[in-house]
Design a protein that fits this description.
Elements: E1 2-8, H1 14-30, E2 34-43, E3 53-61, E4 65-72, H2 75-108
Parallel strand pairs: 1-2
Antiparallel strand pairs: 2-3, 3-4
Length: 109
């Protein structure tokens, strides 16, 4: 699995990199068909300060890509919310794969 963490208008510190890696480990542990993960952490210049910190993630899995984004006043909270969204998408994707597998075995019998 290739993991790319980049920052836009902010520096990605080692502590932030470790935090994102630890959180994404939960997603990759549940689903082993992840090819690559690209995370973009950014600071947007908005007038409203409660949604300035933004985290985006694109996960390449076999078949298609999963994308999620989250905005919050705290970057760590944005990463937490992002991982929760990705976890739900992975579960939905894994359920679709399993339902297709079950349908193909029914046709064989």
């Amino acid at each position: 699995m290739n993991l790319t963490i980049s920052g836009h208008h902010l520096e990605v510190t080692p502590a932030l990199r470790n935090y994102v890696t630890a959180k994404l480990d939960r997603v990759t542990r549940n689903f082993d068909q992840v090819v690559d993960v690209k995370v973009l952490l950014s600071l947007e210049n908005q007038k409203e300060k409660d949604k300035r910190q933004r985290a985006e993630c694109r996960i390449g899995v076999k078949g298609n890509d999963l994308f999620a984004e989250s905005s919050h006043e705290d970057l760590y909270a944005a990463v937490d919310e992002l991982v929760d969204k990705l976890d739900r998408q992975i579960e939905r994707h894994r359920g679709k794969l399993q339902s297709h597998d079950r349908a193909s075995t029914k046709h064989l019998m």
